[in-house]
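P.,

For your records, the input lines for the assembly:
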Amino acid sequence: MSEFDLPPKRQLPFDVRASMRAKLNEELNRPRRRSRKSLGALFATFALLTGTAVGGPLLLGAGDEGLQDGGMPNFDAGQHDRSVKELTARKDVDLERCRQAARASGRTGTFPDPARWRAVFRFSSMSTGAITAVLAGDRPVFCEASRTQVNLWAADSAADSTDHQIKIHAVSSSGFLLGSTSRDSVAIDTRVDSYEVRGGVPNISYANQRTTVIEGLFVVVPPKESGAMTITAGGVRQHRVTKLGTRRQPPSPAILVTDQGRTTDRSSSLGVELGACITRASALGSRPVADAENWEPALRLDLGTRGTAVVARLDNQLGVCKTVGGASSFGAVFTDGSQRFERPVSAEEPVVPGSLLVDGLLITRFSGRVAPEVRSMTLLGPEGQELRTLIGNGVFVALPVQPMTLSEEAEAKRPLPNESWRARIVERGPNGTDRTRVVPAFKY
Amino acid sequence: MTERSVPVTEPPGDRELWLRAANGDRDAFGELFERHAEAVWNHAYRLTGSWATAEDLASNTFLTAWRKCGEMVLVSESALPWLYTVAGNLARTESRRLLRFRRAVDRLPDPGVVRDHADGVAEQVDGDRRVREVLAAVDRLPKGERQAVQLCLLGELSFSDAASALGIAESSVRARIFRARAKLRAVLPEGASR
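Structure tokens returned:
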């Protein structure tokens, strides 16, 4: 503002911003619309998610603000329908395995008769396995099936049929909230508000996400951010807010059945390193590594200042365990939720792409699986690029590896692999001699 | 099952956030606040000559915007021109209170005899004095010119954004600024206007 020689603009001090935000939040938290019900006095201070026995609701609603007018904001019926379609498309895939696990557990009295189980939806988490939400009459059962194991949780009854009340029946081994609410609910909104001091500077932040509800059942993957969690269940006209507080709950006891165990060789130095990394990641991370004993080592990557990483494989799934400063974290292949990336390699398709993402860090998108016959490979870009690759245990990673966060990648406008990329592979032919051919590299 | 924002796409624009806020999305309005709080606060200072008052004015600007956003559609890409306009209107509405405040500030001793030894405090008081001189001159302008000066010269908005906020042609804004500049140069003390 040189026009009038006025003082320069200032950076908004944190305390002023916080003060302004507090006033605004006070206003935002008031019902803005004409009709309002004053039901906010129903604050209870229950202990949350006590992690008790299987069978009973773990949460009866701490800080339940009661039924409120107004549906879920920004509810998109079309998007909801698409989500329901996606969640129910493969709902029966693990159902029989879940039933068998219940029978094999010898705890049949804990569950409703498995013959009566009806799959409602199947929520697939690439990092942990899939959770099938089941109803047996009005009793919810949740079944988490990973590559080698099945975890089962059963509830005595579902939440009430109206009013969007929430029952959290269990917390999965990965920290997912398995619950039910009224059948007319369409979504659960999860919000985490955090306040922390970093480097002497206080900081307020929040995270939001929305979860689809089907037949009153839901699986909420809590945001990784720590802070006070609030969940809102609602339909298109009304909603109910439940404040869960800041304490994250440990996983609920589950009935665990290992039904597809196998022997994994980790005797190599890389195998030992992978095992140690997964152990640290399970112990220190927010979620234990699924099928921790069965990931096989593939490649070791030097990430420079970002530490080191061991790329791992479990059947057709890729994983990566990163270690920096003595702390480890594990991430399964980042597939944008698509199952297509787990298709097997074959002679016709010897290269299947798959990105490596762990703890918010994108190790590389120029990676994937290769057929065991492939001895070496060079990626050929549409503009004449030639990228050498590392290959190990059916996994490839192109060089150089330049890890960055997704935000950094977006800012850097780094070119992404697409179907115009090819792979020149040298593979051992059926007669024992090597042959070279060029095949698609990033067929999505 | 779960939809999460992944920071790989362009953040939503003000217009989208505004629309969502108009439909009751508190988080969208919170994002607008985080995006523009600093600019509105600085602008509020230039409308009041007081950082303390600026905080109240900026707060009230956002509260008003939240209450009103359901009643209007944001036509420009940025919400800032509209927020500045609201701040300007609120500043006028509260002029009596602000006037009392300014008189109180006027009773502060000159910077040379300020007993607070912090240079920052002296600079602030000096800055406040310059802002008040400018504001006094701007306040004497006709309404149209005053609004244009508040948005373009104090708020540093472009002519087109100011025109959009005021609902007039860009050429009209330019004309008002031209006339206002001439008047301000005539009345502002040397050094306060360039």
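Two observations worth noting. The longest strand of chain B covers residues 2-4. Chain B touches chain A through 48 residues (CB under 8 Å).

Regards
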